[in-house]
Amino acid sequence: MKAEILTIGTEVLIGSILNTNAKFLSEKLSEIGVNVEYQISVKDDYDKIYDQINRSIERSDLIFLCGGLGPTEDDITKDVLADVLNKKLYIDKKEEENLLEFYKNSNKTMTKNNIRQVRVIEGSKVFHNHWGIAPGELIELDSKKIFLLPGPPKEFEPMVNKYVLNNIYEDNDIEILSINIIGLGESNIEDRIRKLNINYNNVTINTFAHFYDTEVKIIAEGLNSELLKEEISKIEYLIRKEFGKNVYSTGLTTPCETLVKKLIDKNIKISFAESITGGLLSSKITSVPNSSKILKSSYVTYSNEAKIFELNVREETLNEFGAVSEETAIEMARGLYNKGFSNIAISITGEAGPTPTEKEVGQVFICFYEGEDNYFIKDIKFHGNRNEIQERAANYIITKLLLKIN
């Protein structure tokens, strides 16, 4: 099923507002197996909107018209669509009553042009707007569906959740499973999945790369819900068998959320000693609810003085090897571990740039420390600007932790 999102409004094209509606709707449609093939913004111009709607109807199964349903003269989305479909507009009496009641309860004076908002296209299915005034609509045209939705996100998003998703699949069942894989690139994952030769006529498998993990989305569509679930279960088994511990979760969850849950389940406590990342690592973990159960301490030891005072890094080590070194990373992790807060102490030090001080920009040393005879040191080079290096370094640690305890 091919979808197209048309955002109507000059304000989007001139940059006055950010088009969050297209992003939100695309994500929701992707979750239920609908492919968004076009996202287009059109200015408030009758001819341009008219031409674009015709093109959209010609090439897409689902067309979403977002915005241009308000009371002003440049809100012409309904008018143009009615002309394209050769249908009439009329005032919906129930929506008119809701409009009058809204202004009565708000103690505001209703200007005459507001009545434009409750006009609807003949033959449409009307969706009452509980969050605003202008209703949404669904027009079915042969095998195609055209949705009209208000533009303000505070109205648009709840209307998508309440009406749109329930009116796309009316006859068929659809089953969806997201399998999340970490520690491998998307191209590697996609290639290995194709080599599994998974062939079901009613099933699609797609990969979506996120910043440091990949979502494998399995979508099955048909008339028999139980059969669809069985097919997805078989595919999940094959993928789990292929990727092993790199599969860290299923469903819509992030690596940090999964990591915190697994650490809680296994009663593993962690602590961080951060230099190059400056608290970014602990910030990612503490963004997850209940992370206080597993993150026992976090030190930002950006200066040599802090490394010495807080973590007992020896001054001789810093003088001989530098702050950005394997030796310093080990002593940072050891000093943190010896405080007795955690089962795993993790330290990180490196060069974020843009101007190098000791090593090349992007050079990072990471130590996972679980005891004097049980630690792992990683010397790794990250590329990018300052923020990207910090982000990649923090994400690398989360990935390694997940793989370690998975």
TrEMBL record:
Coiled-coil positions are none
Please state the gene responsible for encoding this protein.
Answer: cinA
Q: Where is the signal peptide?
A: none
Family to which the UniProt record says this protein belongs: Belongs to the CinA family.
Keyword list, A-Z: Hydrolase
Species per Swiss-Prot/TrEMBL record: Peptoniphilus stercorisuis
**Protein name per Swiss-Prot or TrEMBL:** Putative competence-damage inducible protein
MoaB/Mog domain location is 4-170
Q: Which CDD domains match?
A: cinA (cd00885)
Any one GO MF annotation of this record: nicotinamide-nucleotide amidase activity
Xref: PANTHER family = NICOTINAMIDE-NUCLEOTIDE AMIDOHYDROLASE PNCC, NMN AMIDOHYDROLASE-LIKE PROTEIN YFAY
